[in-house]
């Protein structure tokens, strides 16, 4: 199955599976991949995926252009390993061997199950109920297997304050405006959009569609507040 590996400053921040015929990229909130940057146009580029698995990126007359492997393009057929550059964001095209129509259909068939899992995590966050279905681990076991972490608030009235992430699920944001959940798991911490018109961003990339694994130093923006994820070495 083909996918895009999104990275900033050499750090991979997200993977996006290509299961649609058109995957849009831009600053608009309805884009499939939202990039919150003034150098990125509202509707910046689109990635086309043909039935035979061939992919191509097309610039949508953006202001600052779309580059592939350092060269500005209008439309470009992608090969495995090609790097699309949109603003500071780099999207590496990863086409696994055997990507085909049948593989895409298999992914599409599982889409409902994947969405159900994401919805379950959101519902649990809203209810304040920890999720252990994936690991079947007790809270103490989860806590012992992950390095301590905290969210440091960088802007707003609470700037300078740190919030320790000692709970299995910690919600951030403001109800009715924008809420996200940070979930403590054996493999680390994930941030998931929960509710509200204000979407969470991690390193300038929207976390609207899927949970994002947090790494030390990641910058989180939600409802006009900037935060940083800190974790002990």
Give an overview in words.
- Helix content is 15%, strand content 42%.
- The protein is mostly beta strands and 233 residues long.
- It has two domains: 2-95, Tumour Suppressor Smad4 (Sandwich), CATH 2.60.200; 149-231, Tumour Suppressor Smad4, CATH 2.60.200.
- The two termini are 34 Å apart.
- It has two helices and 21 strands.
- The strands form four sheets. It has a six-stranded antiparallel beta sheet with strand order 2-1-11-10-7-8, with no helix packed on it. Strands 13-12-21-20-17-18 form a six-stranded antiparallel beta sheet, with no helix packed on it.
SS-derived structural category: mainly beta
DSSP E strands, number:
21
What series of H and E elements makes up the topology?
Answer: EEEEEEEEEEEHHEEEEEEEEEE
Uncertain segments: 98-118, 124-143
> What's the oligomerization state?
single chain
Largest sheet properties:
6 strands, antiparallel
Radius of gyration: 18 Å
The overall number of domains is 2
Helix content: 10-25%
What's the shape?
globular
Side by side, the strands of the main sheet go 2-1-11-10-7-8
Do you know the CATH topology of the largest domain?
Tumour Suppressor Smad4
Q: What is the annotated CATH architecture of the largest domain?
A: Sandwich
Average pLDDT level: 79
| First-last Cα distance | 34 Å
Can you identify the CATH class of the largest domain? Mainly Beta
């Amino acid at each position: 199955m083909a996918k895009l590996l999104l990275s900033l400053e050499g750090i991979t921040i997200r993977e996006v599976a290509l299961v649609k015929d058109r995957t849009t990229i831009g600053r608009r909130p309805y884009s499939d991949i939202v990039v919150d940057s003034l150098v990125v146009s509202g509707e910046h580029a689109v990635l086309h995926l043909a039935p035979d698995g061939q992919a191509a990126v097309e610039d949508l007359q953006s202001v600052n252009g779309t580059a592939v492997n350092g060269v500005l393009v209008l439309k470009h057929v992608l090969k495995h390993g090609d790097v699309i550059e949109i603003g500071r964001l780099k999207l590496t095209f990863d086409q696994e061997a055997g990507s085909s129509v049948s593989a895409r259909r298999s992914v599409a068939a599982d889409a409902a199950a994947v969405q159900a899992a994401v919805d379950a995590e959101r519902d649990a966050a809203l209810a304040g109920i920890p999720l252990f279905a994936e690991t079947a681990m007790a809270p103490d076991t989860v806590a012992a297997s992950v390095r301590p972490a905290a969210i440091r608030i960088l802007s707003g009235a609470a700037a300078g304050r740190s919030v320790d992430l000692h709970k299995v699920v910690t919600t951030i944001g403001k109800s009715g405006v924008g809420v996200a959940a940070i979930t403590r798991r054996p493999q680390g911490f994930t941030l998931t959009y929960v509710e509200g018109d204000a979407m969470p961003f991690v390193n300038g990339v929207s976390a609207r569609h899927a949970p994002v694994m947090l790494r030390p130093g990641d910058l989180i923006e939600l409802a006009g507040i900037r935060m940083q994820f800190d974790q002990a070495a």
